[in-house]
Amino acid sequence: MKLGIDIGGTTIGVGISDGKKVIDRCSVPSFDRNATLEETISYLTSVIDGHISADISGIGIGVPSVVDAEKGIVYNTVNIPSWKEVHLKEILEDRYHIPVKINNDANCFVSGAEAVYGNGEDEILVGVTLGTGVGIGVMFGKKILNGANAGCGELTWLPYNGKTIEDWSGKNFFCSKGIDPSNLYESANRGDADSKELFAEYGKHIASLLCVVIGAYDPNRIVFGGGISAAHKYFEKSMMDSLREKFIFPESINKLKIDYLSDSDAAILGASNL
């Protein structure tokens, strides 16, 4: 058994995995943005302490950051200001005396998504997580394409509409309008036309994100995860209509498969399988 941990901007997901599925999982609030490094490490180890046992043979952690995956060093973590350079692997192995592996959270998600949708062949699968931030992970067959800093998929910082792609495709898109996306989703479910219209606008920005992803990786399949992707029924049509208008090679869109794992344990499973 291994322990998988998915550190997000809002929550931290924790689960025990047998390598094929997550057997037991829970979520706790993520770190306070004003917490010191020492406070965040203390909080993280308290979470791990509640799940560790003699049956756990390793720990895998996904973080929203660039990572030295070999050494387990985390740099400049998004939404955790105190994590400038954290030797997380060393810290946790010294405490728990079992192997610890660290990678980018989107890489962990796409690894878990491959376990669900992968066909065992050398296809390119891209995972896109839509949440507080926006992450992109890439797999070729069963291999994560890390790049030099586990950042092969880090495209969302690119300029777009005067800001960055992430500003228009993550939670900030809704917060800039004074709206929490979870509340908007509930309103859309109640049939509110304005809420549905805002999701349709959001879908057009996701299409712009996909143009970059498809242009960069030419994937066989894209799998969306993260909390906002649960509302895909309200932005999928505008996303696909806009994608067909914007992307220069229509045959690429016709062949592309798009799936959703918004309520899954993919990131935790992927982390545990690092």
What is the element layout, followed by pairings?
Blueprint: E1 2-7, E2 11-17, E3 22-29, H1 37-49, E4 58-63, E5 66-68, E6 73-75, E7 85-86, H2 88-96, E8 100-104, H3 105-117, E9 124-130, E10 134-140, E11 143-144, E12 159-160, E13 163-164, H4 165-169, H5 171-175, H6 181-189, H7 193-217, E14 221-225, H8 232-246, H9 250-255, E15 257-260, H10 266-272
Parallel strand pairs: 1-4, 4-8, 9-14, 14-15
Antiparallel strand pairs: 1-2, 2-3, 5-6, 6-7, 9-10, 10-11, 12-13
Helix pairs in contact: 3-10, 6-7, 7-8
Strand content: 25-35%
Task: Indicate the structural class.
Answer: alpha/beta
Molecular shape: globular
Can you count the helices?
Answer: 10
Write a structural description.
It contains ten helices and 15 strands. With 274 residues, the chain is α/β, with parallel strands linked by helices. A five-stranded mixed sheet has the order 3-2-1-4-8. A five-stranded mixed sheet has the order 11-10-9-14-15. Strands 5-6-7 form a three-stranded antiparallel sheet. The two termini are 13 Å apart. The model has no long low-confidence stretch (mean pLDDT 94).
In short:
This protein has ten helices and 15 strands. With 274 residues, it is α/β, with parallel strands linked by helices.
Give short descriptive properties of this protein.
five-stranded mixed β-sheet; 15 strands; 274 residues; 10 helices
